[in-house]
Amino acid sequence: MNRNASGHYDTTATGGETVSAFVPFPLPPDPPIDLTGNRQRLLERATLAVGRLDSVSTLLPDPQLFLYAYVRREAVLSSQIEGTQSSLSDLLLFELEEAPGTPMDDVVEVSNYIRALEHGMDRLREGFPLCNRLLREMHAHLMSRGRGSDKEPGEFRRTQNWIGGTRPGNARFVPPPPHEVEPCMAALEAFLHEDTSGMPVLLKAALAHVQFETIHPFLDGNGRLGRLLIALLLHHGGLLGQPLLYLSLFLKQHRQVYYDLLDRVRTSGDWEAWVDFFLEGVETTALGAVETARRLVALFDADTSRVQQSGRSAANALRVLAALRQRPILSLPQLCQLTAMTFPTANKSMALLVDAGIARELTGQRRNRVFSYDAYLSILNEGGEPL
Q1: Rounded distance between C-alpha atoms, residue 218 and residue 302, angstroms
Q2: CATH of 311-381, one of 3.40.50.1820, 1.25.40.10, 1.10.10.10, 2.60.34.30
Q3: The CATH number of the domain covering residues in 7-292
Q4: pLDDT value at residue 110
Q5: Which residues contact 42 (CB under 8 A, 6 or more apart)?
Q6: Would the pLDDT of 202 be above 60?
């Protein structure tokens, strides 16, 4: 549905030139989103898929293991959309203090993403509201180290930014001028807290994501935080007990369509086309996550059966396998810490898994060796190659 532009243009001077900055109208759209026909079916299918994902804990012996790895996979994918070249293995190696030489700038950004998400989830569990203060706190974590740490972490911008192009005058999109950022974000916060309309949580997340990206309230990190906002909204709205739904892989695979649909919302008010795309992404992503969980369970069961057939050494080898499920890349000192094994026992048991083709040594060194659970990482890495 075309409603004309979903905001107005404000002429502003920046960088010695005059530009038209876009100021979005407050949510929800007027007239309301059309939820009849196929769109209603898309909403129902997406909601059902999210429900299946929420029950994934019934498939896994320890849902926290899946959450640990899946959050890190999302951090890598979301950062790749912004141009980083880190892989999941880079991140896990970075988190091992014993693994020097991991590329720093890119992987620090990914690590910051995890810190921001974990801070946001911790605050929500404490009963803190999903509000602008929380978004600023998360942004402070997101930009605390590495590139962008000089871009006012945790503060709404006080200067003009733009998207695409080399300057505001040739940009693809110019967000609201600085004096409009606070009012726009206050209106978005009011929309997040509104609970009288009965708007479905998935629809609210779809609208809020576009609005946040349009406002672009920070000097840097808006894309990553805007994607985190979706996960927070689904948890806060009661659809997911854990932050397990992330659209970054879907958006990475359909980047140009994603950007085009954001532009269509702004220029012609076509929220429906965006909502259709968003709901398709939610269903695809949720069902993909459930399938990933099933494949991991099958892998764990198969490898456990193989190790159980190794005779008297099986008990300790199973403890090492359990540690690799917790941390699919680890060093022997970390293994000793996780299992309370002595170094010789841990070394011997890991060697058994290497001989069985379950684990692989990464460094080729005699000391400071690091081991990888390759089959586990292979499942998580699908679609995670840098752009």
Answers
A1: 47
A2: 1.10.10.10
A3: 1.10.3290.10
A4: 80
A5: 275, 276, 279, 280, 283
A6: yes
